[in-house]
Amino acid sequence: MIETLLRPRALGIALLAALLIVFPFLHTWPFFEGFIGPFRTFQAATFAYWLVILLGMNLLTGYSGQISLGHAALVAVGAYITAILFDQYAVPLGLGVLVAGLATGVMGGVIIGVPAVRLSGPYLAIATFSLVIALPQILKMDIDVAGLHLDLTQWTKGTRGISVGEIQAPGLVDGLVDARQWLYYASMLTAVIMTILAWNLMRSRIGRGFIAVRDSEIAAQQMGVNVRLYKALAFGISSCFAGVGGGLFVMAQGVISPGSMDVLTSINFLVAIVIGGLATILGSIFGAVYLTFQGELISKLAPQIARLVPEQLVQDPKTLRGVIFGSILVITIVSFPRGLAGATHNLLRWGSGRRAGPPDLRRSLASLRAVASSARLRWPRQVTDSEASHTDPKRESPDHPDEGRG
Amino acid sequence: MEQFSQQVISGIASGSLFAVLALSLVMIYRSTSILNFAQGEMALFSTFIAWTFLTTMPFWPAFFLALLVAAFMGAALERFVLRQVEEAPVLNAVIVTLGLFTVFSGLSLTVWGSLPKSFGPFSVFKGPAIDLGPASIGRANVGILIVAVIVMALLFLLFQRTKLGLAMRAVAQNRVASRLVGIRVGQILAVGWGISAAVGAVAGVLVGQTSGLSLGLMFDMLLYAFAAAVLGGLDSPVGAIVGGLAIGITKNLAGTYIDPGVDATVAFIIIVLVLMIRPTGIFGQRVLKRV
Amino acid sequence: MRRSRILWILLTAVALLAIAAVACGEEEEKEVTPPAETVAAETPAAESPEAVTGDTTGVTDTEILIGTHQPLTGPAAAYSQISAATTAYFDYINETEGGVNGRKIKLLVEDDQYSPPLTVEVVRRLVEQDKVFAILGGLGTATHMQVIDYLMEQGVPDFFVSTGALEWVKDPAARPNCFGILPNYIAEGIIFGDYIAKNYAGGKVGVIGQNDDFGQDGYEGVKRGVGDALEILPLETFEAPDPDVNSQVDRLQAAGATVLVVWAVPRQAPAAIRHARADLGWDVPIFIGTVSANELTIALAGGGENAEGVISNEALKHAYETDDPAIQKHIEIIDKYGGIKAANNLTLYGQSLAEGFINILKEAGPDLTREGVIAAAESAEPFQCSVCLFSTSLSETDHDSSQAVVLSRVELDPANPVGAKWVPFGDAYSWQGVLPGDMTIDDIERIPFP
Q1: For residue A381, which of A125, A203, A260, A259 has the smallest C-alpha distance?
Q2: What gap in Å lies between CA A190 and CA A209, rounded to an integer?
Q3: Where do the domains of chain C lie, and which CATH numbers do they carry?
Q4: Peptide bond into A393 cis (omega under 30)
Q5: Cis before residue A401, ω within 30 degrees of 0?
Q6: Quick one: DSSP state of residue A208?
Q7: CA dist B291 → A63, A219, A229, B180 (Å)
Q8: How far apart are CA B272 and CA B265, in angstroms?
């Protein structure tokens, strides 16, 4: 038993769990006071909702190969549902988040998923973009058309948006934790749960189905995978994640309005998962780190770099911020084609003596076979490694993340 | 009826702006299969360069010189930046273009400052509005439409009637096979980027004349230009024009006959509906996937 | 298989527990009320040695740290001129007067690219990491709206928000920390409406407005000002990212509008002018909101040719008034301390922000606290900055500092880089101490100008 606990991975997980639990209190300990403050606790809550959103996006784009540029709209929908339930029907925020997740999932699956099955690539991307463009108008809709009076603003409060105030700790733990720490725990717990869900999902039949659809729609169809269903399901599930993320967002920020999420945010999500690493959980984590800290990093970094530029060339170094950010982005993606997660993975493999090999064809075929052998959709169950590599007695470690294509 | 025709004409005027930018998007997609998000800001940058030339020379020389500079810039970008992500997954190239978007936007700000510049209308685009009976349209807008159609025709001829165009289409479809046939893929890609940067510069100069040269010129326009290109079919220059005009007109009519508060919403719903019927755009090629 | 089942059961249990806990614990405040304590107040580093009661975050013996969110890059980067001028003026005061009461003023300008999600992030960082004393001149309605509640909760003074939306100033009791500086849109609208009623009676007023508070407040004001003198057509809205408003202008022309009022920023306002004049050849009288009363609009509308005759209202002096010593000083200051070569409406506005804030700091005295500076703002004497046309005043019941304007119109001027300039005309309008909520034309008095 001790032996099992001391295994590196178990130790690592235990350490991580411990860190997550004590994090909000770290800044009160003498050693950490210098460089961590209560603001970091809030940032951790921010990280939590970014992570949930990116997990969903990764499911869609990384694992199932469909590009969505409309995720910011789905997040906003989730946030609004949570806020409306709280504001108008006094539904507790936690329950609101859950409902928002499910509702957004259904909406996303139906409204986007169904049309999306016919589209792919850039066409799908732009079609989903329409959602982000249209959403502010829909949220402010108060029109009379053809005799009907359509007024959504009685729920969405129009341009002012909805304010839910600062989240408070429940009476039970009042005194032990303050409002912000409670926010942290609520958000982080949700994020952890969603991460485990995503991880499980991707190793299950559904996940293999997604990968099959991504790698080759036609081959998957030949193998008996219901491509349309899986594509819509991918949208549905990732919308669910987006909805939950939106709920967490409004819990943390305390306010949601039509301007809260814009086109830039949607694009940022895409950048985040590609930089982080497509089709890996670690990639979503890196992406969330990127979203949480990039503003701050650029603010600190840009003036330093700008100082290196000679006076004559540039009058106002502050304007170089955009150039610096864009350049770093390009350099990062050129240096790390598989994202930061891919780079980390290569680093670890290099460290342990194994080299990055060609894409695992056996695994792709196995995923197709595993999915095809089931006639209908069941609750996700783990595809065991014996099934996945049944022609090969040598097994690779079960947590080996799936290789992306190319 | 008068209201309707004026709305349509105004829609054509707005739409022609989306159309010209969409042409450059189509150009680059057709020749490299990449969605270039930086197209708008590259066009803006080229337009600022044109503005600089215009301080020392008349319109047409400045215009063509700016096109030349833009073409070189585009080719250089392909050779030194995009080449690096050729072997990588497609999304990486998209991210690179997003990075370039920020770079060009920032460069425009750094080099030319934050204030807008007076820009045109120039030579043939100057003059009073043109009266079309129940409606009237700005002279500059008519000019833009004409230039857009000319560029569209040139692009069409390029792709359908020239060896270069044929090589571009081949490279976009299958790079390995193209190499095997002896096509210098690298050169072709660079030329593709160069031409589309030049088309972008044309778009920038045209749009700048009607909206003033400011940093935000291409920002919101880009979205509508993408929508136009997608609606018309990403590999069809004709589609870009049709798509752009369609969006301009639809948005105006929706605002007039439904409600101005949902004009963009209706326009995009229609785009999605069209895409559901024709998943690769109105004039887009149906792609047969092989296993 | 058994392992995964146990895992699922565990997960579900934890999830249910979590939901139960969070659900039972909701005691959110629906009303945003001023807090008794703030997170920032607990930081020890900011306390000054003397026993000063109150929140002294951001204040040290030698420095006052304030922050703002501005679009420094991105499509709205033209507005970066404002903060450049404000910073230059603070540098000038720091060097020539050693700051205020021995404390130099340091302004942290953070870039939000006019994007509301970014505003949230940078303001939080300013408040919780940089621990600024106050926020000065936060720019943008949609952007600032995201942080206004947060600043309330944290007890951070929110000075001179750069927007005229009603929300900011309508109820000082609910938002004691928030102060406006731009004339509010309702007052502007009433003034336009009144002028229109007196000069264009009997026709139809067409109003184009952004689809938010800006457009709605402006429309409401115009309605009140016009009264029965003209027929008022339904509001034509547009969204902030719309590239043009051709369709809206066309509809109003078709509906027979004889006067146009446009509530838009220098993106759609010049587009409206350009479309009406250049495309439609329509010389309808056009009124635009004060946020667009600057050289940007003239340039983007296609120069003096199109913009001539357009009317707006202003509260600041002009960069072309070079015989005015205050303007000369302004040009000198922004060049010497900010490297800005050309003055314009934006730089003047930036300086007015700085001057107004310094006046309040002086009023607050050497014992500087957040509560103190708010009280000082409310009790200060009316103050007219060197580049302002009118004096501004605040009180406990009125947080709207700029409550006087004069109408101005565009006139051709070949000497000006954009070919035209804004020239004030007529008597000025003043509504000191009147809140916009129920304001009517009778609440606004005429004062001689200049």
Answers
A1: A203
A2: 26
A3: 55-183+322-402 (3.40.50.2300), 185-314+405-447 (3.40.50.2300)
A4: no
A5: no
A6: H
A7: 20, 7, 21, 21
A8: 11
B223–C247 C-beta distance less than 8 A: no
A72/A133 Cα distance (integer angstroms): 10
Q: Where are the domains positioned within chain B?
A: 2-221
Sorted by where each begins, the domain ranges of chain A are 41-388
Neighbours of C438 (CB within 10 A): 9
Reading the block at residue C371, the tokens are 């509560």
Q: Which of B221, B247, B23, B281 is nearest to A123 (CA)?
A: B281
Can you give the pLDDT of all 406 residues of chain A as single tens digits?
A: 555 555 777 788 888 888 888 887 777 777 766 667 778 888 899 999 999 999 999 998 888 888 888 899 999 999 999 998 888 888 887 888 888 888 988 888 888 888 888 888 888 888 888 888 888 888 888 777 777 777 888 788 877 788 887 777 666 666 667 788 888 888 999 999 999 999 898 888 888 888 888 887 778 888 887 888 888 888 999 999 999 999 999 988 888 888 888 888 899 999 999 999 888 899 999 999 999 988 888 888 877 777 777 766 666 777 788 888 899 999 998 888 888 888 888 887 776 655 444 444 545 555 555 555 554 444 444 455 555 544 444 444 344 444 433 3
Measured between CB atoms, which of B35, B265, B272 is closest to A138?
B265
Contact list, A219 vs chain B (CB under 8 Å): 291
* B260 shares contact with chain C (CB less than 8 Å): yes
pLDDT at A313: 65
Q: Within an 8 Å CB–CB cutoff, is residue C23 touching chain A?
A: yes
On whether ipTM exceeds 0.90, the answer is: no
Which among A140, A168, A196 is the nearest to C27, CB-wise? Answer: A168
Amino acid identity at A380: P
Chain C, 219 to 278: residues with Cβ < 8 Å from chain B are 236-239, 241-244, 246-248, 250-251, 253-254, 267, 270-271, 274-275, 278
Dihedral of CA atoms A43, C141, B215, A70 in degrees, nearest 10, equals 60
- Look up residue A404 and give its two tokens: 């992306």
CA distance C127 to C129: 6
* Phi, psi at C402, each rounded to 5°: -100, 105
Q: Which of B211, B213, B219 to mutate to test the interface with C (most CBs of C within 10 A)?
A: B211
Identify whether the C-beta of residue B95 lies closer than 8 Å to the C-beta of residue B109. no
Q: Provide the Cα torsion C14, C19, C25, C31; round to 10°.
A: 150
| Spatial CA neighbour of B144 closest among B167, B173, B121, B175 | B121
DSSP classification of residue A101: H
Q: Which token pair is C447? A: 């004062």
Q: What is the pLDDT of residues B4-25, one digit of tens each?
A: 888 898 889 889 999 999 999 9
Say if residue B85 is exposed, middle or buried (CB neighbours under 10 Å; 0-12, 13-18, 19+): buried
Residue A362's alpha-carbon distances to A101, A365, A390, A403, C27, in angstroms, are: 35, 5, 10, 12, 54
